[in-house]
Design brief:
Layout: H1 14-26, H2 34-46, H3 69-91, E1 111-115, E2 130-135, H4 143-153, E3 157-158, E4 163-168, H5 174-192
Antiparallel strand pairs: 1-2, 2-4, 3-4
Length: 230
């Protein structure tokens, strides 16, 4: 609120006085309405003030009647926590109306897509990323065609899990990344079916998966503890 002035200011000091009062109104910790803000900005414009409202020259001496920056950040964090607590209490129970029984994927649904959602950060740079995983055994390919397919995908093939994993974050829209992965997989399958015998003698390079392939270590029999006869 603007403070009342008991003394009559001189004409030359009216502009600076109104500016200081208006700026002080914007910096108060009390919740200000849009009308108060509009009146404060109007007072500054009416006096012909062209400088920055938050400039040091336009600020009056701090009276220690407001919270610090750390205090305002703490209050903002509490507001955000209470926001999600209200959603948890009043909005989440409504989701039970949309519950559907789980149905395992059929044999024709061989593609698995994974996405990540960051709560509170709708514009997170990693949110559009989509990861595609498919089992090589479920692909409609013969052994020579599958061999060529694995040569094409290269290091994206995991020989331990027998899966191919690809990811895409080229586009800001997540649905476009879905489409790009699906189209790329179709192109790889079509290319693998073209003359697969020409590369049948080329070995697979599995050096990228060497760290995931653990050798089976067998315990020597001579190290076994001798059995005591009774």
């Amino acid at each position: 609120m603007l403070r009342s002035i008991t003394r009559t200011p001189t004409p030359t000091g009216v502009a600076s006085l109104v500016q200081k009062q208006a700026v002080r109104t914007l910096m108060t910790s009390l919740p200000s309405t849009d009308r108060a803000r509009s009146s404060a900005l109007g007072a500054i414009r009416s006096t012909g003030g062209t400088g920055d409202m938050l400039s040091i020259n336009n600020l009056e001496e701090f009276q220690f009647d407001d919270s610090t920056t750390f205090g305002h950040n703490t209050l903002e964090t509490q507001r955000e926590i209470r926001k999600y607590l209200r959603i948890t209490k009043y909005e989440l129970p409504k989701l039970k109306d949309f519950v559907k029984p789980f149905q395992p994927p059929s044999r024709t649904q061989i593609l698995r897509f994974r996405t990540s959602t960051y709560i509170g950060e709708p514009n997170h740079p990693a949110a559009p990323k989509v990861v595609l995983t498919v089992d090589t055994k479920s692909l409609p390919l013969t052994n020579p065609e599958l061999h060529k397919f694995l040569l094409l995908v290269g290091s994206r093939y995991d020989p331990v899990k027998e899966q191919v994993k690809m990811s895409c974050e080229k586009f800001q829209d997540r649905s476009q990344n879905f489409k790009w992965l699906s189209d790329t997989l179709d192109k790889l399958i079509d290319e693998a079916k073209k003359d697969p015998e020409a590369v049948s003698d080329v070995p697979l390079d599995l050096r990228h998966a060497a760290k995931n392939i653990k050798p089976k270590v067998r315990f020597p029999k001579e190290w076994n503890r001798p059995v005591k006869s009774t």
